[in-house]
Structures are given as C-alpha cells and as structure tokens.
Write a structure and sequence with these properties.
The chain is mainly beta. The chain has no helices and 28 strands.
C-alpha cells in the first residue's frame, strides 16, 4: 500500500436500529494489523452486507423495513465517506424490492459494477435478484428490473430458491448469481440500454450442495463457489468469450474427522497473487486454505486455522495481500491474521476488535 494512503475497513452486522450496525475501522498494517474504531452508525436495520465505492466516497448498506402490511422489504442506505476521518453521513434510502407473494424480500448481498452505474441485490427469502440504477453522484435512482428464480432443491433449507450472491465477471459482460436453494449458478447479462437482467445460462452443482458465494481467479480463467450445505468448494474453468463455466473439481472444506452436518460454509476469497484460495467454515469455525493450480482449477489442502471466534460469516484479504481479517458473528469480534505469501498459511497476529454480530467486512484504500 502506498505511503500516502490509508486502509479503512467497513463492517456490516445484524443489528436493530438502536445498535451500531455499520462501523469504520482504520487498519494499521505497520502495527501487525491493529484496528482502530473511527465511526459507528445507528438507525439501519440489519445492514448485513456493504459495498464501497472509493471513486465516489460512497458506502452502500443493505437494510430492511416493514411495509404497510407489516411485511419486511429490502432497502439500500447510501452513506458518504470522509476519507480523512472515516466518518459516515447518511445521504439517502431507497426500496430495493417490494414484498411479493413469496413474503418478505429482505436482501442478503449487494454488489456494484466498476463504473458505479448499477447496484445488484439478492433476496435470499424472496428468490429475487434486483437491479438498481445509480446516478453520476453515486446515488441509487430506481429499481430497473427484478429477476425471479423459481423451483426448489432436494434437502432441508432448499424448499424454495435462495439467491445468495451476485458477482460480475472480470470484464463485467456477465453476472453470476449463486442460488443456494436451486443448486445452481445462473448467468445474466445486463442490458444497459433497457436496464434489464437477461438470462444467458446456468450450471448445476451437486444436489444438496447449496452454492453461496462465488469468486473469480485473478487471471480470470477459472472461478470457484463455496457450497454452504455440504461443506465443499467447486471449481470451474471459465470461457470469457461465451461466459460458460465448465466444472473442474469439488473438494471438502473440512478435516476428514469432522461432520459436515455440523457445519455451514460462508465466504470464499483469493490471495492477491491467486496462488491460494480461502473459505470459511461455520461450525468447525475455521478458515480452510487451498493451493491453486491456475491451469486446471485443481485445489490442494494447505491448512485449517481456527478463526478464534464462532460462526465466521465473512472475511477479507487486505489489498496488499498481507493480512486476512475474519468477521466472527457469534464471537462478536474481528480477528486479524497475517498471510504468508509464500505458503498461503495464516497466523494470528494478536490483533482483534470487539464488535456486535459482524456479518461483513470490506476493505478500501483511500488517499491521505
């Protein structure tokens, strides 16, 4: 990281409107990853996932509200970021998806294209994917389209669709939505003239796997999904021209002597150089580390390391590739690990921060 820049961490959590649901920390890599709380924000219900736009100094947090019939609906809260102080100031709120026949449409994930022209949100309970337009100042304008998933899976927890994340391809020609309830990854194209989501195709994973979060290799030639329900990672080779995924391998996230029925996977992310892949186990409460063969998308187990807290819902690798920070929801803490770039292995730094029910942690580098 450049000397004239600073790394801020933005966290979202399970929270009532009277709690500090969104927090901002300064991360000091020179001090082994020491965390300093800069700001906290109340008044947002369950801001469990956030997205940062450093170009426009904007933070987008999902939230929820009750409509006139008392049914929960999703919304996005937009906040401005003061890079010098870390202070957040609320700018606007916009409904993402109104309640439907499926009931509540609260959201679980939010993403943004690199131009900041669109936000994409996923409704786990509603089986919906929403596309929102954003103006030049970084303010969401309106919901332009909603994709509806239908059907069900084969195991408990798959009684209906559950879109859990939406990830852009490296060139942003395609959008990949992991549906935990349908055991598939559906590919969309955003028609930017019409502001609509157009289905391009899909690929299935094993029945009962429950695909949750999805990530591309830094070279863009392969992709990986962590499967929540059967504690595995499935890798794919990727054709960037067609947007087609081809299944490579599926590997367990757990040691052989631990039952996957007591575990649910959550986040997945790469080391900066793409040599190592990381996934979180909730139950075993660990990060699994794999060495990656970038040519074949094969994975080799390298390490399991305790997250030093229960239910590691999310984690992030710092932009310089030197640290990994885990958000332990039930441990009520953020835990900092150093990342050995040669081996991919993680080591606890001794640095952590207490925070209530963290669900998401997102890094962003700002000039100072």
């Amino acid at each position: 990281m450049k000397e004239n820049s600073r790394l801020l961490l933005f966290t979202g959590s399970y929270a009532s409107t009277t709690d500090n649901g969104v927090q901002v920390y300064e991360f000091d890599g020179g001090a082994g990853g020491k965390l300093k709380l800069l700001d906290s924000v109340q008044g947002i219900a369950n801001p469990t996932f956030v997205n940062v736009d450093t170009a426009k100094n904007r933070l987008y947090a999902i939230s929820e509200k009750l409509n006139g019939e008392g049914v929960k609906e999703g919304e996005v809260v937009t906040l401005s970021i003061d890079p010098q102080t870390g202070k957040l100031t609320e700018l606007s709120r916009i409904s993402t998806m109104p309640a439907s026949d499926a009931g509540q449409t609260t959201t679980c994930h939010i993403n943004r294209d690199s131009d900041g022209a669109y936000l994409v949100v996923c409704s786990y309970h509603g089986g919906l994917v929403g596309l929102l337009s954003v103006d030049a100042d970084g303010n969401p304008v309106r919901l332009t389209d909603t994709a509806v998933h239908t059907g069900k899976g084969t195991v408990p927890g798959q009684e209906k669709p559950h879109p859990h994340s939406a990830v852009f391809s490296p060139d942003e020609r395609f959008l990949f939505v992991s549906d935990l309830g349908l055991d598939l990854i559906r590919t969309y194209h955003i028609n930017r003239d019409a502001g609509t989501l157009e289905v391009q195709g899909e690929i299935k994973v094993a029945e009962g796997a429950g695909p949750r979060h999805f990530v591309f290799h830094p070279d863009g030639k392969s992709a990986y999904v962590i499967n929540e329900l059967n504690s595995t990672v499935t890798s794919f080779l990727y054709d960037s021209e067609s947007g087609v995924l081809k299944t490579s391998v599926t590997v367990p996230t757990l040691p052989d002597d631990y039952s996957y029925t007591n575990n649910g996977c959550a986040e997945i992310a790469f080391s900066k150089d793409g040599r190592y892949l990381y996934g979180s186990n909730r139950g075993h409460d660990s990060i699994v580390v794999y060495a990656v063969n970038a040519e074949t998308a094969e994975l080799t187990l390298a390490q399991h390391v305790s997250t030093r807290g229960g239910h590691p819902r999310h984690f992030t690798v710092t932009p310089d590739g030197g640290y990994l920070i885990v958000a332990n929801r039930d441990g009520n803490n953020l835990v900092v690990f150093s990342l050995d770039t040669a081996t991919g292995r993680l080591s606890f730094t001794g640095n952590e921060a207490e925070t209530s029910k963290p669900v998401c942690v997102k890094p962003a580098v700002f000039p100072v």
